Amino acid sequence: MNQNIIQKYTQLNRNKIILGSVLIILLFLFILFSLSIGGYQLSLRQIYRALIGQGEGAAELIVWNIRLPRILAAIMAGVSLAVSGAVMQCTLRNLLASPYTIGISHGAMFGAAFAIILFGIGGAESTGKIFIHSPYLVTVFAFFGSLSAAFIILLLAKLRNFAPEAIILAGVAMSSLFSAGTMFMQYFANDLQLAAMVYWTFGDLSRPLWTEVGIMAVLMILSVTYFIYKRWDYNALESGEESAKSLGVNTEKTRLFGMLVVSLLVSVNVAFLGIIGFVGLICPHLVRILIGGDYRFVIPISSLIGALLLLVSDTVARTIISPMVLPVGILTSFLGAPVFLYLLVKMHKR
Amino acid sequence: MILSVDNIEFSYRNKIVLKNIKFKVKRGEVVSILGMNGAGKSTLLKCINRILKPKRGTILVDGFNLNQLDEKGVARNIAYVPQNVTGNNISVFDAVLLGRKPYIKWDVSNKDLEITGKILKLMHLEEYALRNANELSGGELQKVIIARALVQEPKILLLDEPANNLDLKNQMEVMKIIKDISKTQNIASVVVMHDLNLALRFSDKFIMLKDGMIHSEGNSGIINSENIKDVYNVDAYVDHYKGIPVVVLA
Description:
By secondary structure, chain A is an all-alpha fold. Chain A contains 14 helices and two strands; from the N terminus they run ααααββαααααααααα.
């Protein structure tokens, strides 16, 4: 009997690993699909030859300079946002916590708007396309904007002893504060600056080049490794503050470091890509509905679902009204809002 | 003595909550901590396993000073069942397995799985093992949390009002489990209790707290009219029914 239960239990865990493997395969197939589809269709053979460096001019250019960085950015951002959402929901003890809902994204928006108006960065080409001069400066300001939002939340959380309702309320307050600040600057901005600010806020995966993708990748790998290492601590935290302490977890430290890593990860992502809402909120919840709340599986599987979701969304975004390319942020928010409402209703029922 | 608590003092924002708390517990014993709301019962439990850090005093477990152990070390010696637990979205097996946290290095070992299986069987929780912990009733969940504590292989088990919010049948069952396990596993249980009759029925020793200090300590003899009047400010008398002491409110 005893052996029987353990066997059944390990079988269940094996099923979750199988799900993870299926997701990896799906992701891989979708990468290939995404490489091939677009304004210029590529065959698998062309993609293969381009990847090994023997492609013809156009194909190689499209694969290496346009599609691959964009696909990798989607994967990095998807993983980063989803895993951040999962960890935030645990460390802040709130189902509604995500980079978007607690004001980190709005902090970034404020930072970017500040840089654009203060340094007069931003303008329009003769074709009418909006561009941003020295995007790095905007990125740096966005980074510090989001980081400061994260730290204010962290500080409030610490002072209020991580009371769940306090965090979300603080997030709402922070979001509206940063939004007001952004609108204030928009009011005084000229047409071009205004256009640049609005353009910046659309989460867009076409921005990062190889360097940015590299930075995102390194940070993502380090963070995800850290989160996986802490998975048992997160499981303990989910069972309640006192239970976790009695299981030997230093809860304050675990929360603080978790939030620090998340803040850094999200800030870099928002700074490079703009605002991509709701991926961080939806993915962990989807995973919990699918396989339960065990962080040994929530972290890796959320990552995979995040990557897949953002890659699919972006592929749709750039092909649905081709040759026009929609910013992916619009699509994910469209998807996210109904899910968010559904969660609210479901939470209320409890 | 498996547990010696000596001269514990704890204050919260300059208000003294516990003062000069001193008692000893033997292996296999069940000790009930009694007293009014706010007397410091829960605080005392939390001081024992260092969820709260007492201002002064020492706690020895099996002769070892707890101050010299890190969080994991404490967790390997003392398990704690808090008040008002809620089940989360993991299987009962996972919820119990979590008790192995203080021993897990990178991942669970076969030994961790074996112990979890063994305790699930001991607590008659096998049929629930793969159900979700948030679908359980109050009594079932309380048993799961006690099972998690046992999987920690503690020398001391602390329970904060384990019979609270349970129906009569489950109250009896949970208390019986605590008593039986203390004897069979040879561990000491320190239990915060509200129901004097339940405490009398299942404990070997009693500690009555009043205003953060020990009012009286000893066997069932200390649960008498004067002490009850003194500690709870309630008139009651103690009678015996078939050899079991029973507190009857006047």
